[in-house]
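To the wet lab folks,

You asked to see what we're planning to order before we commit. Fair enough. Below is the target structure as tokens, and below that is the sequence we designed to fit it. If anything looks off to you, flag it before the synthesis order goes out.
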């Protein structure tokens, strides 16, 4: 499948899959979307609810953008994070080396090096990226996830239902529900009615929230305590 690096509206880049006409991040702004959906609507609430030790799973590690901004937020706020990134098809080195997230985020040279460290970290092996940030990248299909009561927060950043509808069905959200602790939070850029209904069907409490630039709404789901 042909993949191209393209610039989004906020100056940050993303990967475009021509065959699917699908982007890894919003063409309206990759960094803006990541901050709005995953930090603004997920991370901040998780900090309020669980304190300064968080266990996060990302569905679709992809470009590493969400992991990188989470690492920067954790450094800034003194939060200890155990981060699990699940990805069936890892981005190639030639691609991630073209991603300009460190530059766009005005990262220090040391922080820029951490973006590369995230990508060079071994798969299937927990690695310390910084003293407060542990990363475990799992090369795994989402329907093979079997974690139970393991995470406080899930970033659900799979490709859209238009191209991969099977990733947005009840069976997948049942796995997400089981992977979260009681009170655990799942956030996603998606807002389709069918996605919301699938989340509710497995037991989540679901709310619509304002979406990132270019998108009217997004969803946040919470596992009851």
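Sequence we intend to order:
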């Amino acid at each position: 499948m042909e993949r191209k690096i393209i610039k989004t509206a906020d100056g940050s880049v993303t990967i475009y899959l021509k065959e699917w006409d699908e982007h890894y991040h919003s063409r309206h702004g990759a960094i803006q979307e990541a901050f709005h959906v995953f930090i603004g609507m997920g991370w901040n609430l998780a900090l309020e609810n669980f304190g300064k030790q968080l266990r996060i799973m990302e569905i679709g590690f992809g470009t590493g953008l969400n992991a990188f901004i989470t690492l920067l937020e954790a450094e800034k706020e003194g939060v200890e994070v155990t981060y699990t990134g699940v990805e069936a098809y890892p981005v190639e080195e030639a691609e991630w080396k073209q991603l300009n997230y460190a530059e766009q985020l005005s990262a220090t040279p040391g922080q820029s090096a951490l973006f590369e460290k995230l990508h060079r970290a071994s798969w299937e092996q927990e690695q310390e990226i910084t003293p407060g940030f542990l990363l475990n990248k799992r090369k795994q299909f989402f329907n093979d996830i079997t974690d139970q009561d393991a995470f406080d927060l899930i970033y659900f950043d799979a490709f859209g239902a238009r191209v991969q509808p099977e990733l947005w069905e009840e069976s997948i959200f049942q796995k997400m529900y089981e992977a979260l602790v009681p009170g655990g939070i799942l956030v996603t850029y998606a807002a389709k009615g069918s996605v919301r209904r699938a989340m509710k069907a497995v037991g989540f409490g679901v709310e619509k929230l304002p979406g990132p630039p270019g998108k009217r709404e997004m969803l946040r789901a919470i596992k009851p305590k």
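Structural context that might help your review: The domain at 31-222 is CATH 3.40.50.150 (Rossmann fold). The mean pLDDT is 96.

Thanks,
Computational group
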